[in-house]
Amino acid sequence: MLIPETMDSVIRVLLNSDRLTLKDIARETGTTKAACSKIIKRLHSTGYVSKRPIKALNKTRLLKAWAYSKSIKELKSVEFIAAERAQYNSKKIATIADANQLEYAFTLFTAAEIITPLVSAVETHAYILAADIKKWTELLKKNNIYQSKKGNIIFYPVKKSYFFGSEKIRDLKIISTPQLYADLFSVGGRGEELAEEILKLMR
To answer: Which of 73, 89, 123, 151 could pair with 81 in a Cys bridge, judged by C-beta atoms 3.0 to 4.6 Å apart?
Structure first.
C-alpha cells in the first residue's frame, strides 16, 4: 500500500459519505480526531476535499487516486477448498455469517456478479474480520470446507474499518462500491474492465 493505513480508512469513509464531521470520521475509522484532522488537511492541500463541510470535492478523482495507491494483492489471504461452485459457496458463507453474527463482505468478481450480469465468478472472495479467522475455520470445517494452500474460497482478514459502506443485496453482503472498484482495478485485466462498469453505476 502506497498510503498509510489511517489515510486509507479516512478516504474510504469520504468516498462513502457526504458532509462529515471529524468526530464522525474518527469514530468510523477507529482513530483519533487529531490524526483525522492531519489527513483532512493533507487531502485539502492537494485539492481532494473541502474542510467546511468535510467532503470529497470530486469523488471520481479521489477514487481513482485511491485505487492507484492500493492493491488487494498486498493483503494477507486465507484460502479454503469447497466442492461446490462459487455461487453456492457465496450463499453458504452468508448463511454461516448470519447464523453466527460474523462480519463479512464479498468483493472482486463475487461482488461484481451480485450487482451486474457482466461476470460469473469461479472463486469466492470475501473480507472477514481478522479476529474471526479461527471461528470461520471451525465453522467452515463443520460444513466440509477445509483450509488449503490453494482454494476456491479466499478470505481477506482485515480491520472493521474496511466494512464501512458495505450493503446487502439479495441477502448477500458486498463491500462498498468504492472499495469494490479499487479491488477490481488492482487485479487488472477483466477486473479493470469491470471496475469501469462499476464506476458508471456510481455516477
So the answer is: 151
Residue intervals of the chain classified under CATH 1.10.10.10 are 5-68
For the domain spanning 5-68, the CATH number is 1.10.10.10
What grid cell was written down for 67? 485505487
The CA-based angle 34-27-32, given to 5 degrees, is 20
Q: What's the CA gap between 200 and 203, in Å, rounded?
A: 5
- The CATH code of domain 73-202 reads 3.30.460
Of the candidates 177, 197, 195, 178, which has an alpha carbon nearest to the alpha carbon of residue 186?
A: 195
Q: Give the mean model confidence (pLDDT) for residues 2-21.
A: 91
Dig out the grid coordinates for 119 from the structure.
461476470
Whether 123 contacts 152, CB under 8 Å? yes
